[in-house]
Write a structure and sequence with these properties.
0% strand; Four Helix Bundle (Hemerythrin (Met), subunit A); 2 domains; 407 residues; Helix Hairpins; mainly alpha
């Protein structure tokens, strides 16, 4: 700790508060933390929304593949199977002789055809691709031609036409092959579309994973950056305040305290700077007061020394006065003794002078005068004794005061 002697009040640099700007350090700590956490929550919500959107898209694509396109593929394959089944039944019908068997084959063929009509309508409802719909139109044309020729041959067969087998091979089979070929083209087209949809779904899944991964990395990076920025904006001023407080505690009141923010930490640094400035002023005032007290103490000590010397001189004078008073008292006592002796002599003389009247009267008068003088002398002695007693008391008091002044 520096001592006051030789110390001068430091000149502390004034604290300059910058004008309000959009700096992060100018925001209150609570608002700063709230904005940081809010930003992280917003980023997290955006990533979650993006992930949900991508998952929804992936789910829709998967459902489209799993329901629509696979259903289309299955219906087309069932359609082709129904065509082949009816072709077999048609061949059996054209070769049959038994009417009951022919009617059964006809009923089964019609039932399969009815089921096939439902599948065709379902396919037409599901198919949205332009190429597939064009193929459906081609299939419908081939199907109509096939059904017309089939119905014609059936009627001829019922009428006993002998050339029905030749007509089947010549006219009906090419139409059936064309019908199946068009249907097979539709099946291949749908298979290609299904494979493309599966690839698109896989690509969408991979893109979703990559997008979520990149978004997560960005969120982590932004969160870390926000955490570092906010932590630094709070910790740095606190560290500066701690260092300033340590310097002030060590007695260093000269180092300026920097303050470049307007938040709670900046207000703390400003308060520390104000405290340092006021402490410097107080220490300077204390130093000046101490110097005044030291000067006054020196003057008081000098005065005490003078007073002690004068007190010693007064004590010596009082001692000399006391000695003179003792000598005077001794002289007065001798005079009193002499007066008593004179009184005794006067009494003896009065006894001797009894015989002479005039002489005795004169002697009596003389003795009265001597007696009066003796009384006056006795009074004077009493006064002198009183003066001597008071003088001794004064000398004693002066000695006591001198001793106190010397202390």
């Amino acid at each position: 700790m520096p001592v006051l002697a030789g110390w001068t009040a430091p000149t502390v640099a004034p604290i300059s508060i910058p004008k309000a700007t959009m700096k992060l350090s100018n925001l209150p700590v609570g608002l700063r933390l709230g904005l940081s956490f809010g930003a992280i929550l917003v980023i997290t919500a955006l990533i979650a929304a993006l992930g949900m959107w991508r998952i929804s898209s992936l789910q829709m694509a998967s459902e489209r593949v799993a329901t629509q396109e696979i259903e289309q593929q299955t219906l087309v394959e069932d359609w082709a199977s129904d065509i082949r089944l009816n072709w077999v039944r048609t061949e059996a019908f054209l070769k049959a002789i038994d009417r009951d068997y022919m009617e059964k084959l006809t009923a089964d063929t019609l039932a399969t055809a009815t089921s096939m009509e439902g599948k065709v309508k379902r396919i037409e409802t599901l198919v949205q691709d332009g190429q597939a719909r064009a193929l459906l139109a081609t299939i419908a044309t081939a199907r109509a031609a096939y059904n017309d020729k089939l119905n014609e041959i059936r009627e001829l067969h019922r009428g006993g036409e002998p050339n029905v087998p030749a007509m089947v091979d010549k006219d009906l089979r090419p139409l059936a092959d064309k019908y199946l070929a068009a249907l097979d083209d539709l099946r291949k087209t749908m298979a290609t579309q299904l494979a493309e949809s599966q690839r698109d779904t896989s690509t969408l899944a991979q893109g979703s994973q990559m997008l979520l991964g990149v978004g997560t990395l960005l969120a982590v990076a932004m969160g870390a950056l926000l955490a570092w920025t906010v932590t630094r904006s709070i910790v740095r001023p606190v560290q500066l305040g701690r260092q300033a407080a340590e310097r002030i505690a060590d007695g260093d009141l000269t180092c300026p305290i920097a303050c470049d923010s307007r938040d709670e930490t900046g207000q703390l640094l400003q308060a520390l700077a104000t405290m340092q400035s006021r402490l410097a002023t107080i220490v300077g005032n204390v130093r000046n007061s101490a110097e005044g007290v030291a000067t006054a103490s020196v003057e008081i000590a000098t005065g005490n020394n003078d007073l002690s010397a004068r007190t010693e001189q007064q004590a010596s004078a009082l001692e000399e006065t006391a000695a003179s008073m003792e000598e005077l008292g001794s002289t007065v006592r001798q005079n009193a003794d002499n007066a008593r002796q004179a009184n005794q002599l006067a009494m003896s003389a009065s006894t001797v002078a009894v015989q002479g009247g005039d002489v005795v009267a004169e002697v009596v008068d003389t003795m009265k005068g001597i007696n009066d003088s003796s009384k006056k002398i006795a009074d004077i002695i009493g006064v002198i004794d009183s003066i001597a007693f008071q003088t001794n008391i004064l000398a004693l008091n002066a000695a006591v005061e001198a001793a106190r002044a010397g202390e």
